[in-house]
Amino acid sequence: xxxxxxxxxxxxxxxxxxxxxxxxxxxxxxxxxxxxxxxxxxxxxxxxxxxxxxxxxxxxxxxxxxxxxxxxxxxxxxxxxxxxxxxxxxxxxxxxxxxxxxxxxxxxxxxxxxxxxxxxxxxxxxxxxxxxxxxxxxxxxxxxxxxxxxxxxxxxxxxxxxxxxxxxxxxxxxxxxxxxxxxxxxxxxxxxxxxxxxxxxxxxxxxxxxxxxxxxxxxxxxxxxxxxxxxxxxxxxxxxxxxxxxxxxxxxxxxxxxxxxxxxxxxxxxxxxxxxxxxxxxxxxxxxxxxxxxxxxxxxxxxxxxxxxxxxxxxxxxxxxxxxxxxxxxxxxxxxxxxxxxxxxxxxxxxxxxxxxxxxxxxxxxxxxxxxxxxxxxxxxxxxxxxxxxxxxxxxxxxxxxx
Length: 403
Ligand code: ADP
Ligand code: ASP
Ligand code: MG
Hints:
Elements: E1 3-8, H1 16-30, E2 34-39, H2 45-56, H3 62-69, H4 71-86, E3 91-94, E4 101-104, E5 111-115, H5 118-125, E6 129-133, E7 136-138, E8 144-146, H6 152-162, E9 167-172, E10 193-195, H7 196-204, H8 212-221, E11 225-229, E12 237-240, E13 253-256, E14 260-269, H9 274-284, E15 292-296, E16 302-310, H10 314-323, E17 331-344, H11 354-364, E18 371-375, E19 378-384, H12 388-398
Helix pairs in contact: 1-4, 6-8, 7-8, 11-12
Bound molecules: adenosine-5'-diphosphate (ADP), aspartic acid and magnesium ion.
């Protein structure tokens, strides 16, 4: 049995007309494959559920949050299934606990670690088309869990792994992965094939088109992914091993974030262990610190420490720092008007001068760099939000991504 896994994102199932289109795509693959479908909730539904939770409480129970926000997928799966049945196919929806899809980890951020295959295999053998809720599973206590926003990407990849699928196609509202968000820069170019490593960096650094965890799962399990549009027939992007890719560009993609905040502690007494004293309680409270920079004062007695966090963690971070009696500092400042712009590409490993070119390009545009961080295949800078589009446009041109 040749199995294919198809994933449909929120916009692709956003209206009943689109669901009818999705059913046609599924029907096309059914001619050649045993098809497993993973669906997201209709676009906007998950956001609305989250809004409802906020109306009840700022401290809405994490376990109940997962029950609530996972409900959107039940709706879309049933609509897809019913449309297929109406067109004469054998189809049924599967809620994650009915499969079951087993997850581990905390509520809201669980990861799939097992999928019970028996029922689905039996159904596929009978010619059925299972439509399965993405983004969720159940844990060892039989409670419903979710696997992070955009998690249906990871659900699809884990199904492809467990069912040894021949193909895994992620259907979304753009026809592939682009050099930068095509909805923000018209000259963005579609990437034919991209390595897991580059895609993981791009996704983690703001390219919403794929969920970062899903790429980790794909890389670990060597699942090739095709990203395509559910609205057009265009060829999409292949996400695969580095070995399979020929690329002559130094930079593959440019990303930006929209929800970072900068925190600065001014006049911190400079002594060994001070950074650890600041970051320990943050990590104990699951606050993810991203970029860090420390300036040493002229007399070596005081230092300023700057770091970035997700904006939604700002309130919590402020409280933790102010309550921390292990540290002394003169002032605490926050800046929400920042964005992290990153250039990503395996080509920079072997090409000297990329950092210089990036900084020079931003300098020409009079864009001030606040914080810098680098890895083997990416360079990120923190800049004022108002300069993001200008920065992306100029970097896109500098690294010849327009052609
Ligand atoms: P879905 O609901 O199908 O999961 P998402 O909204 O999560 O879709 O992801 C698709 C969106 O990702 C696109 O509409 C696009 O604006 C955005 N995006 C950001 N960066 C990129 C990129 N480099 N290439 C393609 N799309 C991108
Ligand atoms: N519906 C969920 C979300 O909006 C999961 C997904 O779309 O993949 O985050
Ligand atoms: Mg998505």
